[in-house]
Amino acid sequence: MDAAGSPTGDDAPRLSWVFVGLLAASIAENLVSGDLIWTVFLAAALVVLVLPAVAARDSAAMLPPEVTALAVLPAVTRALGPAWATEYATYLSVAALALAVVAELSLFTSVEMAPWLANAMVVLTTMAAIGVWAVLQFYSDAFLGTHLVGSADDVNVAFVRATVAGLAAAVVFERYFADHADAESASDLPEGETG
């Protein structure tokens, strides 16, 4: 463990792969239960999580386990959690996926973002994804005869929940990288000195 309390060395990628395995099991559970929308969404999340390792052809090129766990938590919650948690897992999963994409851009590409911009991207991406989802539900109701959108109030509540989930993910992102920046700067100091 490093100064921030995170797994180091070979342990971090291994732990991330364990979380990816849990996500794969959740995908199988959703497929067996016939929930195709969640199966597709979780498969997309799986692709996002393993993309750095596949692109680098290195199994150690993974997001930190804390970020991977946050991205996998909603899938496991939907599979094993109580029914009331399922609705909230939807918003958290979109926010966690946005967080994973921004973290991958920061860690595995030459993209440099100010922390405020990374946080804004997480929140805005979450809100945009929920917005697209609401539009798709509306058109499904209009053209396919489904009843997915109850009322304008329901849509507004969805946007508020998405915004809260996005803000929560942005706070996690900010705290995680602030803690690790502090840990790295402390490890750069000569032994016995503090920052």
Helix content: over 70%
Number of helices: 6
N/C terminus separation: 19 Å
Task: Find the count of extended strands (DSSP E, 2+ residues).
Answer: 0
Could you tell me the radius of gyration in angstroms? 18 Å
| Helix vs. strand class | mainly alpha
Q: Which stretches of 5+ consecutive residues score pLDDT under 50?
A: 185-190
Q: Largest sheet, described in full? A: none
- Sketch the topology as an H/E string, one letter per element: HHHHHH
Mean pLDDT: 81
Strand content: under 5%
Shape type: globular
What does this structure look like?
α4 packs across α5 (115-144). The two termini are 19 Å apart. Residues 185-190 have low confidence and may be disordered. With 195 residues, the chain is an all-alpha fold. Helix content is 77%, strand content 0%.
